[in-house]
Design brief:
The complex is a heterodimer. Chain A is 56% helix and 3% strand. By secondary structure, chain A is mostly helical. By secondary structure, chain B is mainly α. Chain B folds into two domains: 1-89, Rna Polymerase Sigma Factor, Chain: A (Orthogonal Bundle); 119-194, Arc Repressor Mutant, subunit A. Chain B has helices spanning 5-13, 20-39, 42-58, 69-88, 102-107, 114-136, 139-150, 155-162, 166-193. The longest helix of chain B is centred in the last third of the chain and has 28 residues, at 166-193. Mean pLDDT of chain B is 81; it is low at 106-111. At the A-B interface, helix 3, helix 4, helix 5 and helix 6 of A face helix 2, helix 3, helix 4, helix 5 and helix 6 of B.
């Protein structure tokens, strides 16, 4: 018996296994406390109650006759009551019906849920479709689709676009682009005058930026020639290339 | 030994209407007790029970063995009692011997011996107290307690009858019992102070 069963047992006047309940209560202080809290109400509810109250018989005779007169005028069964019964039956039937999501397919020695089988089938068909498309695509003579990533944008918009594209040295080209962006957008940092530090990580970030700024100008200038003025920043915030 | 409710209902659906009497005998006492507790009027309670059985009979074709007959039956009774309370537009008033005037009280038949009279009186007082306390609870908690203790439904059946989850049904019973206990302890303390 667990703690959840104890609540069922406590609230069931006809609970059969009282010994098991007592055994659990002896071991579980939480359930003992629950029983103690609910005890006044339970003793009232589980005590003797009149089997069938004789309220109607207990009423005075005059009142009974007047009640009878009123009751005789009322219909025995209203449309509302039938509606209540039918609605309750429909609701209970819908609650009791097994849900589609919990449908289980029985295989010899295994139980596999219907949703899992659906998933496996979908994945298999999807894979097959992709394979067929790839096979057909390889054999076809359709012209290749353009790349999704656009190539170089028109020059003059930003420094990175002004840097000459060197397809033979992609790595160096990428570095030049990064450096040019740094040169353009970190203008609040003053160029550093002095020897270059070997490692950026030894210094605070601001110092590192300065070092990078000073280094980048010479690197970019060496590799790609003079960097043209760009218009991606307002005129008053544009970086003046050259000596600080 | 009579067959179970679902079997009886199948026979009734097939046209053997005499079996309906068995169902009425089986459930009527508990239904009347709960209806009386909710409505606090004997005539109205009997009406509600009568109408419940008639509604069951009239819509017997909608019964589905997938759910329990008694869950259906209690659901109908609770709904009809609630509708009746709504029509009256007020909470039920507690009627007990003490609220009747002397002439009314005298007309009520007493038990034959003093011992049985005392026992009967205690039971009636106890019942009146219980109904009064239940009527002070929120309807959902009071109904859940009635279904559990008077109708003897399992928590799964209470959940179905009230349209809530199993945990929700247990919570309603538990919360109602806690409130009842608090109230009873409070009353006891007051009487001790006096």
């Amino acid at each position: 018996m667990n703690c959840d069963d104890v609540f069922d047992a406590l609230t069931d006047p006809q609970w059969a296994d009282a010994a098991e309940l007592a055994e659990h209560l002896a071991k579980c202080p939480r359930c003992r406390e629950l029983k103690q809290v609910l005890e006044p109400a339970l003793s009232l509810l589980c005590g003797d109650l009149p089997a069938e109250p004789a309220m109607r018989a207990a009423l005075p005779h005059e009142e009974q006759t007047s009640d009878d007169a009123v009751l005789s005028k009322r219909p025995f069964l209203s449309v509302e009551a039938i509606g209540v019964a039918e609605a309750a039956a429909a609701r209970l039937a819908s609650q009791s019906a097994p849900s589609r999501s919990s449908r289980v397919i029985r295989l010899p020695g295994h139980r596999v849920s219907g949703r899992a089988v659906q998933g496996v089938l979908c994945a298999a068909f999807g894979g097959l479709a992709v394979f067929c498309i790839a096979l057909w695509d390889g054999k076809s003579e359709v012209t290749p689709q353009p790349l999704l990533v656009p190539t170089v944008k028109p020059a003059g918009v930003c420094t990175r676009n002004a840097v000459r594209q060197k397809t033979t040295q992609p790595r160096e080209n990428a570095r030049a682009v990064i450096l040019s962006c740094v040169a353009c957008h970190l203008q609040e940092h003053q160029p550093r005058v002095g020897p270059l530090r070997t490692s950026l990580f030894r210094f605070p970030r601001r110092g590192a930026d300065r070092s990078l700024f000073a280094w980048n100008q010479t690197e970019v200038a060496k590799a790609h020639g003079p960097i043209p003025e760009v218009n991606c920043l307002p005129a008053d915030r544009r970086l003046r290339y050259g000596n600080a | 030994m009579h067959p179970d409710d679902a079997h009886l209902m199948r026979r009734i659906q097939a046209g053997e209407f005499s079996w309906f009497e068995v169902l009425v005998e089986r459930y009527r006492p508990a239904l009347v007790r709960v209806a009386l507790g909710m409505l606090n009027d004997g005539a109205l309670a009997e009406d509600a029970v009568q109408e419940t059985f008639l509604a069951v009979f009239a819509s017997r074709h909608t019964f589905n063995p997938a759910f329990h007959f008694r869950t259906w039956l209690w659901t109908i009774l609770l709904n009809l009692c609630r509708a009746q309370l709504k029509r009256r537009g007020r909470r039920p008033q507690v009627v007990s011997r003490s609220t009747l005037n002397p002439s009314e009280r005298a007309s009520i038949a007493e038990a034959s011996t003093s011992e049985t009279a005392l026992a009967s009186l205690l039971i009636r007082e106890r019942s009146a107290q219980l109904q009064s306390l239940l009527n002070e609870l929120p309807d959902t908690q009071a109904d859940a307690i009635r279904l559990r203790f008077f109708a003897g439904l399992k928590y799964e059946e209470i959940a179905q009858a009230m349209g809530v989850t199993l945990g929700g049904a247990k919570l309603r019973v538990r919360s109602g019992l806690s409130r009842l206990s608090e109230r009873l302890l409070g009353d006891e303390e007051k009487s001790n102070e006096l």
